Amino acid sequence: MIVADGRQAMYRKVAAELRQGIADGAYGSGGRLPAEAALAQTYGVSRGTIRQALALLRADGLVTSRRGTRRVVLGTARVQTFSETVSFTRWARSLGEEPGGRVVDVVRRPADEVEREKLRLAEGEEVCMVLRVRTLSGAPVMVERSVYPRHIGEIVAQLDPAAVSHTVPLEEQGVQFTDVHHTIDVTFADADDADLLGCGIGDALLRERRHSTDPAGTPVEWSEDRYLPGTVAFTVHNSSATTGLSRRTTI
Amino acid sequence: MIVADGRQAMYRKVAAELRQGIADGAYGSGGRLPAEAALAQTYGVSRGTIRQALALLRADGLVTSRRGTRRVVLGTARVQTFSETVSFTRWARSLGEEPGGRVVDVVRRPADEVEREKLRLAEGEEVCMVLRVRTLSGAPVMVERSVYPRHIGEIVAQLDPAAVSHTVPLEEQGVQFTDVHHTIDVTFADADDADLLGCGIGDALLRERRHSTDPAGTPVEWSEDRYLPGTVAFTVHNSSATTGLSRRTTI
DNA sequence: CGCGTCGAGTTGTACAGCCAACCTGGCCAC
DNA sequence: GTGGCCAGGTTGGCTGTACAACTCGACGCG
């Protein structure tokens, strides 16, 4: 039985418990979960709440579900939450790596055409571009070029240049990244990339372009990250209806 | 008002209608959706059903949602359904490209260690490996190495070597790919890749490794696809809770 | 003019119930 | 043995209700 503390929805707490149970191997891999009705009774909630919790696990690819038979455990829990997939810092820490980096450049300038479309700005409005190198345990792995609309850029520009994370302070200032659209492909290093990552000009890099909006649907960031090959891989899960993204290291 | 025909769940039909409405610009980009209660009335269903429909749209990144205010339209509809993200053939067709390809090699052999783990096989069990080149409008863009457990491999091996799609006939045989886990990174062309794709040995390729299971949680495919840079990009969307994957061309 | 308060509107969470669709295993007839 | 049938168990789909949490504009006060 779980007690409501009002700070987190019941179904999320139930989901967390189930996730833990799966990670502990309480049901075995390929094993079966108890029926929804049974779970409802043991957790002292209604079946609807259990179904909400299970929908979260299903979106993470932890369990299957189909009509007529009990849910099957697909794999062990991935620790990463959504926020870790957006924040390089938290993601790295969750892997036991020590994230680092430095701000190479901060530029304020009028938005170009692509930026105006992505950030939904009018002609002539300014953006703030931050160029950073990011490291894992000291070794450079990624170049990040983030473009922010002005009001957010102000916050970023005033951060300690040595700050490891920009996401955390931004969230503390009330900036939320709730909807993120990623595009992943391959590109090739330009002179700056080569210099910052210590690779050759023209070497292949794994590119992630990221477009984030806040809960109101207002664009808050447009970023292009370039990773050295072999340092990270992106993992995505999708079921027939819902899916989940995470990032993992390949070092 | 939508009529139930019993072949598709109401909430999916409502979702499809809303998707269409968004694509048609009925609500405008950045505009607001009607309230759940209003939608429930216009479609003649309960609010719960509307919420199920909206959950689908949210997972696709089409709308935001937060407490206290109406949903905001984030972007226009992406046509691609989940199945298109798994089937190269359907994906290509949905873009107006003509997919093609040829089977280069079919091998039956004992599963190696990785394959045994991915397909959950016992030592000594055989797998069927299919090596294919896939083309878009005639140009080779991808090398696919798919490994199937025996009983599925039998079906694949008996397909017409000129068959464009393997997924479609497999589904007709009752093989379903409901849960798919993707890993995306960069790798480098070996001699076979270079030969088949017409690139140089050691050239960078975008790699997608794919692990699919059926509704019962049984592994059905373990595949490694290698794309020429610049031909495709993977796009992923995630909201705080749910996410959606699609693939798009960059040609 | 700026500021806080208030209230209507809206989504989130949770409960209870009902039936349909479907899977599984056991039983029975052949 | 083999195949079909049936009953029980289980999830999917849908409805209805209630309240909590939150947003945002209107309004009034200083």
Report on the structure:
2 copies of one chain form a homodimer. Chain A is 30% helix and 31% strand. Chain A is α+β, with helices and mostly antiparallel strands and 251 residues long. Chain A has 2 domains: 1-77, Winged helix-like DNA-binding domain superfamily/Winged helix DNA-binding domain (Arc Repressor Mutant, subunit A, Orthogonal Bundle); 82-249, Chorismate lyase-like (Chorismate lyase). In chain A, a hairpin with a 2-residue loop joins strand 2 (126-136) and strand 3. The interface between A and B is large, with 50 and 50 residues. Strand 7 (232-238) of chain A pairs antiparallel with strand 4 of chain B, so a sheet runs across the interface. Chain A binds a DNA duplex (30 and 30 nucleotides) through residues 6, 9-11, 35-37, 45-49, 51-52, 65-71.
